From TrEMBL:
Cross-referenced SUPFAM superfamilies: Ribosomal protein L16p/L10e (SSF54686)
Any matching Pfam family: Ribosomal_L16
Gene from which the chain derives: rplP_43
The protein's name: 50S ribosomal protein L16
A GO molecular function held by the record: rRNA binding
Key words of the record: Ribonucleoprotein, Ribosomal protein
Family stated for the protein in its record: Belongs to the universal ribosomal protein uL16 family.
GO biological process: translation
GO cellular component: cytosolic large ribosomal subunit
InterPro entries per the UniProt record, alphabetical: Ribosomal_uL16, Ribosomal_uL16_bact-type, Ribosomal_uL16_dom, Ribosomal_uL16_sf
Annotated source species: bioreactor metagenome
Lineage: unclassified sequences, metagenomes, ecological metagenomes
Amino acid sequence: MGSGKGAPEGWVAVVQPGRILFEIGGISEEIAREALRLASHKLPVKTRFVKKGEEEK
């Protein structure tokens, strides 16, 4: 009989709550917010924008 293993269907990564996924520099805050807003629609989790130096809630 075969080994019962097929080809991988996809990749999975465990991401803990509060983990920073993207860092953006060299552009205005307005453009960065819009880019991350568009990217957040592609993610299956709730996201928020955090600015360096600001206290997290």
